[in-house]
Structure formats: structure tokens, C-alpha cells
Design a protein that fits this description.
The complex is a heterodimer of chains A (about 290) and B (about 120). Chain A is an alpha+beta fold. Helices cover about 50% and strands about 20% of the residues of chain A. Chain A has 13 helices and 8 strands. Chain B has a single domain (about 5-115), classed as Response regulator (Rossmann fold, 3-Layer(aba) Sandwich), CATH 3.40.50. The longest helix of chain B is centred in the first third of the chain and has 13 residues, at about 10-25. Classes of the chains: A alpha+beta (about 290), B alpha/beta (about 120). The structure holds magnesium ion. Magnesium ion binds near residues 53 and 56 of chain B.
């Protein structure tokens, strides 16, 4: 998620183009993060030292870590720790951007600091963003909400990543009274806790959920497509009901959906935009109240 | 190969389940869209195995299970639940459900369970 969030900032700030960002995403999927980049990002080596080791690496048949250790730049322990960071999403994005030649690591890091200022986030918040862990990132972009509702939203997004699109990312959440949409699917929980989870989206946005979930190619947001969205919500709620089961008894009501609906209202519902395949879908969550069509 | 009745209010889930079962040599002899429809189709079709979704309108899977089991104590019923819903599963065992599968469907889990009735 950090690649999309920070990547969009870079595009909006005019630092890279949208096409370059797309190409960086492609590269990010293909290449491993260079150890030299991690060492510099972690401030264990200078850029010059890293370049020197890279040059040596091209003439010696040795790994970056071994050369850096023999030159006294890193200890074996440090190499081990750096290797452990190769899966880090922030570093993997930094690697893709610098490997593409769009920015140097210094420029990338400076821009990340500007990104922090633009969000007015703390250093701890930025560490959460760098981690790529949606459970840590999403609360930063949400208004203050009850813990159980937060848990529900986090579970919904994790399920979205797992079943719909691993590249999905969020926008800024808000409390809304209404939302525009084309079609809607929702399901309520009843029992010890009343809650409703709903997905909405304009145009054919909801197909970004329906198609991968049903493994179909719906072309319009019709009742069949909305049934798929509803069944996806059913899966999220099932997991949520299981999660809260020891302390709370919640029942899942049959999901409902309606085509042709163009707006949804509630006195105050949580609205979180999720971006997927270039479209915006809205996750709407209401605790202790109702969402009406 | 088993003759199977699928009872689920979601067209998507019926289609996915049918796909998995048919591709692996089972025969879907009917589909029902809620518990009440499921009970009627069960009586009419006498399937070897019935998959019964729990969360459905009109009559839910647990009610349908009780009705079917009362008529046909030997019916092989596989309950379908979204994730855990543990409390419902405990009730379902009490009412005589044979097995469970969870949504979202996983091919291997479904085949492993359906094949148990296939001797
Ligand atoms: Mg259902």
C-alpha cells in the first residue's frame, strides 16, 4: 500500500509521471531489493561505499554482503538484518524508483519527508506507512471510531486484499451522511451488536469486486454482479462474527442488494474509499444504526 | 460421483460450488434459493448429498436442516457457512448435519468432504 499512497503523492507533486509510477510498480513486482539500497536507507553505508561495493561486485564473483563485510563496511550481523528487510514494502518501492532512474535514494527520502509534512503525521505514523501493514496504516486515515468498528473495517480490508485485489489501497476515511453509487450491496449483523457493512461505487466500480470474487466478466452492475458483492460482504462478516464470537453473539442477516440505486444515506456512517484497478469503491460501515437506500 | 442438491441464496455461491463439483465428476441434480425451496427440492429430488447454506432468507439453513432431518434421518447434509459461525455449527451438529464447508469455497476442502459420501 505504501507504494500507491506515496507514489500518488509523487505524481501529484509533479516529481514523477503517472506512467513512470506504473512502470515502477511493474519493476517492483519483478526485482529484488538491492542490499546496497537497504544499507544506505538504513544509514549503515554511504552511497559512495555502496557504489564502490557494486563496482567490485561486477568484477568479483561475490555477493554484495560478503564484499561489504570484507571491506569493513558491514558486520555479518548487519548483513543478516538487512537481508531481513528485503521484503519491506517501502524499501522495495524505493528500489524500483531508484533502479528506474526517476529519483536518487536521497531525493526519494527527502520527498518522503515532505510527504510526512503534507500529512502532518508523526515519525511513528510514517513507520506504520513504511511497514505496509494495513492494520497499522488504515487507522491513520480514519476519523476517531469505536474499536469494534475499526476491527470490522480492518478485517474488511484484509479480506479485500486476500480475495479481490492484492494491489488495492485506501484513501482518506470520513463520516458521511450519504454516498453516490450505482447499485449497492450490504449485510447487517444483529444480536449483541448491530452493524451494517456496505459496498458502493459509481459507474461500474462495483464490478472490480464482483468480477474477481465470482470469477466472471460482468459488464454492468446488475443483480448478478451485486449478488457477488453481497456474498463477498457475507464472507467478511462471517470472519468478523467468528472473531468477536467468544465475547459477543452476533447473527448474520441475509445480505441484500439493489441495482439502479443511486444514493445511500445514513445519519453518520463511516466511508472509506478503496482504490482498485483505477476505480474507487466505497466501504461504508455503520455501527448501532442503519444504512438506508 | 454423487447426486447433489445445492441450497444457497447466493447465485454466485451456487455457481462457484456447481463449477467445482461438476468439474470433478459430481452431478448437480438441483438448486434451491432458500431453506423453504431447499426442503421442497429435497423431497422432490432425493439427493445423495445436500449442501445447505446457513444464512438465507425466508427459512435459514438451520431450520431447513431440522425439517429435512425429521423427514429423512439418513440425509447427508453438508452445511455451508461464511467463515466460522461456531455457535451455528454446534447447533447444526445437534440437528444432525454431517459435515461443514466454509465460504469462500476452497476446491480441495469441498472435494475432500463430498468424497466422503462417495463410496
Ligand atoms: Mg447465504
Amino acid at each position: 500500500m505504501v507504494n500507491h499512497l506515496f507514489g500518488n503523492y509523487l505524481v501529484n507533486a509533479g516529481i514523477i509521471t503517472a506512467e513512470q509510477l506504473e512502470q515502477a510498480f511493474e519493476l517492483q513486482k519483478k526485482v529484488r531489493v538491492k542490499l546496497g539500497l537497504i544499507a544506505v536507507a538504513e544509514k549503515l553505508m554511504t552511497t559512495e561505499q555502496s557504489e564502490e561495493v557494486n563496482r567490485l561486485q561486477s568484477v568479483m564473483d561475490k555477493r554484495f554482503g560478503d564484499i561489504a563485510v570484507s571491506k569493513g563496511y558491514l558486520t555479518d550481523e548487519q548483513v543478516g538484518r538487512l537481508l531481513g528487510l528485503q521484503g519491506n514494502p517501502y524499501l522495495s518501492f524505493a528500489n524500483a524508483i531508484t533502479e528506474s532512474g526517476y529519483m536518487t535514494l536521497e531525493q526519494f527520502e527527502a520527498a518522503f519527508a515532505d510527504y510526512q509534512k503534507s500529512l502532518e503525521f508523526t515519525a511513528t505514523d510514517m513507520e506504520a506507512i513504511k511497514s505496509g501493514d494495513s492494520d497499522r496504516i488504515i487507522p491513520l486515515f480514519l476519523p476517531e471510531i469505536d474499536n469494534m468498528q475499526l476491527e470490522h473495517v480492518l478485517m474488511a480490508f484484509r479480506t479485500f486484499i486476500r480475495l479481490i485485489d492484492s494491489d488495492a489501497y485506501i484513501g482518506k476515511g470520513s463520516i458521511a451522511a450519504s454516498a453516490k453509487t450505482n447499485g449497492v450491496a450490504l449485510q447487517s449483523l444483529d444480536g449483541d451488536k448491530k452493524a451494517t457493512l456496505c459496498f458502493a461505487g459509481e459507474g461500474d466500480a462495483l464490478l472490480t469486486i464482483a468480477n474477481p470474487f465470482a470469477k466472471e466478466e460482468f459488464e454492468t452492475v446488475d443483480l448478478d454482479a451485486l449478488d457477488a458483492v453481497a456474498e463477498f460482504i457475507n464472507c467478511i462478516n462471517g470472519m468478523y462474527a467468528t472473531r468477536v464470537a467468544p465475547s459477543l453473539n452476533v447473527d448474520m442477516l441475509p445480505p441484500s442488494y439493489k441495482d439502479g440505486v443511486d444514493s445511500i444515506a445514513s445519519d453518520a456512517m463511516l466511508m472509506l474509499p478503496i482504490y482498485v484497478k483505477g476505480k474507487e469503491v466505497l466501504l461504508l460501515s455503520k455501527f448501532d444504526g442503519e444504512i438506508t437506500l | 460421483m454423487a447426486k447433489i442438491l445445492i441450497v444457497d441464496d447466493s447465485r454466485t455461491s451456487r455457481k462457484i460450488l456447481r463449477g467445482i463439483l461438476e468439474q470433478n465428476g459430481h452431478e448437480i441434480i438441483g438448486e434451491a434459493v432458500d431453506g423453504q425451496d431447499g426442503v421442497l427440492k429435497f423431497r422432490e429430488l432425493q439427493p445423495e448429498v445436500t449442501t445447505l447454506d446457513i444464512t438465507m432468507p425466508i427459512m435459514d439453513g438451520l431450520e431447513a436442516l431440522q425439517v429435512i432431518k425429521k423427514d429423512s434421518p439418513d440425509a447427508n447434509i453438508v452445511m455451508v457457512t461464511a467463515a466460522g459461525q461456531q455457535n451455528k455449527m454446534i447447533d447444526a451438529i445437534k440437528y444432525g448435519a454431517s459435515e461443514f464447508v466454509t465460504k469462500p469455497f476452497e476446491t480441495e476442502e469441498i472435494l475432500r468432504i463430498i468424497n466422503k459420501f462417495n463410496k
